[in-house]
Write a structure and sequence with these properties.
single chain; 3 domains; 8-stranded mixed sheet; 4-stranded antiparallel sheet; 20 helices; Rossmann fold; 486 residues
């Protein structure tokens, strides 16, 4: 992975990093506020061995050496239970000797004759008082410890009332919480990314599916505007479908007609939306296009184009209607659509019948491009059955939803059925934040155009009287018939 890949991952999961990074300092703040403040009284004691002035330098050196040797031992004695009991006898407190002993800490100051004494307590005044009491009790006990010796211990720096608590250290806790939160957030981000098997980039899709990516579609509001190529031609989504049209056209460069199954590894990948917009884009380029809804389980094309569904693919397959009577022409620069018809109990058998082969052959004799919308590839065998009558398969994957395993399984299924995979399209592919302003601003504000299929039946597209122009299904059928005869 390159640096830009790491930055992309961080931008993608920035919200997770922010939440975790703020959660830890918040917990640290709450914990600090809930903790009772602890204060520390501090004092310093000096240990000096008396020497004979007539002894000269050697006597003074011996005294200093003896004092340094005893400092460590005296520090241990200061923390002993006996010193705590002596301090409580000197100045009684509502504490036991064990409790006071746990509060006392003494350590020698390196390269000096000093002992640093500290006592911690939740009350600052009591911390000061206990510190001085322990020091005085120890000074009184020294003659008994060193009977007849020439040692002297003095309190050179009495304890003062502490103004700030030593625990909790709120600012430090918050800073540490922020650092730990950032590290945890980054760790979780890259861990989730490592465990995430979904396809997010064209490179990953191409490697998993084994087919070139012929189109990358950005996210758009498919529920509100399912066909932006017709409704909003100046949007980034519409331009992406036009790029898909250009790449798709290269697939049939050496064919008079091309018939292609459009499917996806699983449901919800947006295959019907892709086939609808691709069909419109091809029709706008001057090609005769037919869309066949062969998803006889959950058909969608009739909803996208707002067409009646009752007569369609199943009607033709059951030989209850001719293709010319069932197909619906949407007007200039629009594809003809054969809706699914009534849903049968045996979709795979119908789609694999001889009549399905004849239906597609009949459409190929009239249209330059026939796009067949089939059910998802992995749950059912419908796409593989229909692929025997077509030139190949266009696989649609959804960014962040389709997994690498699903794409690889789709490739294996096509290979096992002997179906050629023309290419793959990555739907809802996220555009990086740095690319969005330039990418979307180029197309300006989206425009909304009225579809001919959505116009009221009482008004034609040019405002003429509907009685003076050919409209309605009969006119569409006559245009299809005349095209087939020619």
């Amino acid at each position: 992975m390159e640096l830009r890949d790491y930055l992309r991952i961080i931008r993608k999961r920035g919200r997770l990093i922010l939440v975790v990074a703020l959660l830890f300092p918040a917990v640290a703040l709450v914990w600090s506020k809930a903790t009772t403040p602890t204060y520390r009284g501090e004092a310093k004691l000096l240990v000096v061995a008396k020497t004979d002035p007539s002894g000269g330098i050697s006597s003074a050196y011996e005294g200093a050496l003896l004092s340094q040797q005893l400092v460590k031992s005296f520090a241990q004695i200061l923390e002993s239970r006996a010193t705590a009991e002596a301090a409580l006898q000197l100045d009684p407190h509502p504490l036991t000797a064990s409790q006071l002993q746990g509060k006392v800490h003494a350590e020698p100051v390196i390269d000096t004759l000093l002992i640093h004494l500290s006592v911690e307590d939740t009350n600052p005044s009591r911390a000061k008082r206990l510190t001085n009491t322990v020091a005085r009790a120890f000074i009184r006990a020294v003659p008994k410890l060193q009977a007849g010796s020439s040692l002297r211990v003095s309190l050179v720096e009495p304890a003062l009332t502490p103004s700030t608590p030593v625990r909790p250290r709120t600012k430090l806790n918050i800073a540490l919480g922020l650092v730990i939160g950032l590290m945890t957030g980054l760790t979780l981000t890259f861990l989730f990314e490592l465990l995430d098997r979904s396809v997010k980039t064209p490179e990953v899709l191409e490697a998993a599916s084994g087919a070139p990516v012929v189109g990358t579609i950005p996210p758009f509001k498919a529920v509100k505007h399912p066909i932006p190529v017709a409704d909003q031609p100046r949007t980034a989504a519409a331009e992406a479908f036009r790029k898909l049209r250009t790449n798709f056209s290269f697939l049939g460069v050496d064919r008079r007609t091309i018939c292609c199954v459009v499917t996806s590894p699983a449901s919800g990948d947006g295959k019907s939306t892709v086939i609808a917009n691709l069909g419109i884009a091809l029709a706008q380029a001057g090609q005769r296009v037919a869309l066949v809804d062969a998803d006889l389980r959950k058909p969608t094309l009739h909803k996208i184009f707002r067409l009646p569904q009752r007569v369609g693919t199943t009607t033709v397959l059951l030989e209850k209607a001719r293709v010319l009577d069932a197909i619906q022409d949407l007007g200039p620069d629009m594809p003809a659509v054969l809706t699914s018809g009534q849903l049968p109990p045996n979709p795979s058998e119908l789609l694999g019948s001889r009549r399905m082969e004849e239906l597609l052959a009949e459409l190929r004799s009239t249209f330059e491009v026939v796009l067949v919308d089939c059910a998802p590839l992995l749950p059912v065998t419908d796409p593989m059955v229909v692929s025997h009558f077509t030139d190949g398969v266009l696989l649609v994957a959804r960014s962040g939803v389709t997994t690498r395993d699903q794409a690889a399984a789709a490739r294996a299924a096509c290979a096992k059925a002997g179906a050629a995979v023309f290419g793959s399209a990555l739907n809802a592919a996220l555009i990086t934040d740095n690319d969005q302003p330039a990418y979307y601003a180029y197309y300006g504000k989206p425009e909304t155009l009225d579809l001919a299929v959505a116009k009221p039946s009482g008004q034609s597209s040019n405002g003429a009287d509907p009685k003076s122009s050919e409209t309605g299904r009969a006119a569409r059928h006559r245009r299809i018939r005349s095209g087939m005869r020619s």
